[in-house]
Amino acid sequence: MKITVLGCGALGQLWLSALYQQGHDVQGWIRIPQPFCAVNVISPEGVAFNRNMPTNDPEHLAQSELLLVTLKAWQVSSAVSALMPMLNDNCTILLLHNGMGTVDELPANRLAILQGATTHAARHEGNAIMHVASGMTHIGPVTPRGAAHSALADTLHHALPDVAWHDNIRPSLWNKLAVNCVINPLTALHECTNGDLIAFPDQIEQICLEVAQVMAIEGYEIHSESLLSFVYQVIDTTAANHSSMLQDIRHQRHTEIDYITGYVLRRGRKHGLSLPVNTRIFEQIKRKENDYERISS
Ligand code: KPL
């Protein structure tokens, strides 16, 4: 399959290496064009993949059957909108990022768009990407034309298992969103690992209750206790992780808060819900972000 991977960070390199090793014709796409990008991934078993992969070939992009988007949520709409006119009608776009709401920011288009949520954990260590833990990727359509693309789950599963297809992906996206609403801002505010969050059960419960309220009013069958136990399960399985938001704050990068807690607040506001706990957390993260973004601008 001819594939372009947009974004060559940790998750992008993971997919580039996995798809290449599965025999796909794959290139990367990066913001500042270069003839190639160095892909250097160490598997959970310690096996290294090290190779220069081609990047930013417009002909390859025009013929791609899949555009796999591994950017941060806030980078998605401008980067994907810029590439859309160059894609062929049969190209499927798969968005893999934390949070929700990016698909609503894309211009009206003719393309099949899928979104996914993944639990693979990968992080930069020096020049290498450590694939710290294998995980599960759930994908499914977020535009009507996406519904016909379930076979893609098999293709991706062979490259980087496990991948599961969902005709209705939204419940999985909301469950992951709830996890990110708890773990990401709390680890950034308390400056702790995911596992250390068990010291803050009240905050965890209050965040979950509010997210469950929004989910229920949006029409998802949800019990706040099962959401809470799902969140604790992820806290447990990722206990040693430094969440992506904690890393973003530590490196003074823009965070994904607008698409995580911010998305829940926007949906809640639409239904007239006030969500005081998530509102306060959103403002605390924004304040941290604004502090360093103001200094650097
Ligand atoms: O998605 C994550 C992130 O850090 O962004 C979790 C699931 C919280 C794992 O750290």
From TrEMBL:
Record key words, sorted: NADP, Oxidoreductase, Pantothenate biosynthesis
Ranges where the Ketopantoate reductase C-terminal domain occurs: 168-289
Origin superkingdom: Bacteria
Pfam families in the record: ApbA, ApbA_C
Domain Ketopantoate reductase N-terminal: 3-142
Enzyme Commission number, as recorded: 1.1.1.169
Functional description taken from the UniProt entry: Catalyzes the NADPH-dependent reduction of ketopantoate into pantoic acid.
An annotated Gene Ontology molecular function: 2-dehydropantoate 2-reductase activity
SUPFAM superfamilies listed in its UniProt record: 6-phosphogluconate dehydrogenase C-terminal domain-like, NAD(P)-binding Rossmann-fold domains
Protein name: 2-dehydropantoate 2-reductase
NCBIfam families, alphabetized: apbA_panE (TIGR00745), PRK06522.1-1 (NF005087)
